[in-house]
Design goal:
With 393 residues, the chain is α/β, with parallel strands linked by helices. It is built from 13 helices and 14 strands. Helix 3 packs across helix 10, helix 11 packs parallel to helix 13 and helix 12 crosses helix 13. It binds 4'-deoxy-4'-aminopyridoxal-5'-phosphate (PMP).
Length: 393
């Protein structure tokens, strides 16, 4: 078959290929990018969906507005206000993944340059490439994107926009410092560049809350708000199956994105939206957040301790303070492996899986890197899995 030429730039994700091996009996997987299904507040969601059907069946089962179901838009707007964000114009999307797709669709013409972090979310790389973007990779450290390097790249490439996951990034787990957040806003204004803040993990912190979102900080930097888009999601804290995400952006951009969404899925499932709205209204969210923060926090601690114990100086990493991931680098110390692709193969033999880091780089892949999720295995499995990893090295 003669497929559209836009597909020439993308290939199926290396991660998906790896997932085929995860069915092996006895395997401990640190490979997934999803939350633990045992953490879903099933009772709360049962109540919420019941209420959606008894109190508002007409709306919950009917076609709805492309911008989103009004009760959910109101609930999400209140949620964002509690986080210091002016949610004007917020639209509901089918997961934040759709928000990224709509941004690609509305902003990227073939050949346009987009700056992303190196490493960044794999599905974003693929989505933006599908629209013909030329991706430029900005280096990061434990404090997120290096803003001095970012400035040089913006000045040189004049990108269509900059895409960042500033809080507990996937895969990096890094948290952009307050100082750098402010710098990003200044860069937006100085170079009149759109900044996209993808924030599905910001509520998933383990100790102290992270600095306010870039969008919330835009109040302090005149002229920056018009240059920001912010994507949020209920996937990591409540349920990815609901497919509820949202986007806040300048009105002109939101209008175009809404138009594109109309051609794409008309609207996000009204039943899912009504359920999510009822859930947020029920007041259970703070309890749910406290629970996921505690459990994932313990798992992250356990994984950090196990990595230090079992892999020692063969690996370097920064302990994440939130999110779902450890981002680690093989050092090659004492003749141990420094290639994560090779380690992934050996690890599967030892019945433990993780994702090699190279595919997360839009440019200049670092083959020594790897991503380990601590979300879906309990502490005992984490300890056993990391031990197996140490044996595979
Ligand atoms: N952005 C990032 C950084 C992610 O890690 C994910 C999920 N893995 C998404 C967006 C998409 O999430 P969802 O569509 O479920 O909201």
């Amino acid at each position: 078959m003669q497929f559209a030429s836009r597909l020439d730039n993308v290939e199926t994700s290396a991660i998906r290929e790896l997932f085929k091996l995860l069915g092996k009996p006895g395997i401990i997987s640190f490979a997934g990018g999803f939350p633990d299904s045992a953490m879903f507040d099933v009772e709360g969601l049962k109540d919420a969906s019941q209420k959606a059907l008894t109190e508002e069946a007409g709306g919950a089962l009917q076609y709805g507005a492309t911008e989103g179901y009004e009760p959910l838009r109101n609930q999400l707007s209140s949620f964002m206000k509690t986080k210091g964000v002016d949610p004007s114009g917020l639209i509901v999307t089918t997961g934040s993944q759709q928000a990224l797709d709509l941004l690609g669709k509305t902003m990227i013409s073939p050949g346009d340059k987009v700056i992303v972090e190196g490493p960044t979310f794999l599905a974003t790389i693929q989505c933006f490439r599908l629209y013909g973007a030329q991706l430029i990779s900005a280096p990061i450290d434990a404090n997120g994107v290096k803003t001095d390097e970012l400035e040089k790249l913006i000045a040189e490439h004049k990108p269509k926009f900059v895409y960042l996951i500033p809080t507990f990034g996937n895969p990096s787990g890094a948290m952009l410092s307050l100082e750098r957040r402010k710098k990003v806003l200044e860069l937006a204004v100085k170079y009149q560049t759109l900044i996209v803040e993808d924030d599905p993990y910001g509520d998933l912190y383990f100790g102290e809350a992270p600095p306010p979102s870039i969008m919330s900080l835009s109040k302090d930097v005149p002229g920056s708000r018009e240059l920001l888009a912010h994507c949020g999601s209920l996937s990591k804290v409540l349920s990815p199956g609901l497919r509820i995400g949202w986007m806040i952006a300048p009105p002109e951009l939101l209008a175009k994105a809404t138009m594109c969404k109309q051609f794409s899925d008309a609207h996000t499932s009204t039943f899912a939206q009504a359920t999510a709205a009822q859930y947020l209204k029920s007041g259970r969210m703070p309890g749910t957040l406290a629970h996921v923060r505690e459990v994932y926090g313990q798992r992250a601690q356990a994984m950090g301790a196990a990595l230090t114990r079992e892999l020692g100086d063969a690996v370097s990493f920064t302990q994440p303070n939130g999110g779902l991931f450890f981002w680690a680098r093989l050092t090659g110390a004492n003749g141990k492996l420094a290639d994560a692709n090779e380690l992934a193969k050996r690890a599967i033999e030892k019945l433990v899986a993780f994702v090699p880091g190279a595919p997360f780089f839009a440019e200049k892949p670092d083959v020594a890197t790897l991503r380990l999720s601590f979300a879906t295995a309990d502490i005992e499995k984490i300890e056993e899995g990391v031990k197996r990893l140490g044996q595979a090295l």
